[in-house]
Design goal:
two-stranded antiparallel sheet; alpha+beta; 2 helices
């Protein structure tokens, strides 16, 4: 069974820089001009945490979902 992940953006910390979007290998996130990152394809997330590791403000988090949680 494929692991599933939940992505959360803390809008109070996020400065809308787009670094998380740029480093996501699966293009799970997208960003438009002057917006917070949009979690477009959460089901494609592989849990690599590159978005979290590269975020200069620790504003994005990736958590493994419990089995059975949709």
């Amino acid at each position: 069974m494929k692991k599933r992940f939940k992505i959360t953006v803390n809008e109070q910390r996020c400065k809308k820089c787009g670094i998380c979007v740029a480093f996501c290998p699966k293009k799970v996130l997208k960003i438009e001009i002057n917006t917070f990152p949009i979690i477009e394809k959460e089901e494609e997330c592989i849990g690599c945490n590159l978005c979290y590791l590269r975020c200069p403000d620790i504003a994005i988090f990736v958590e493994e979902r419990d089995e059975g949680v949709v």
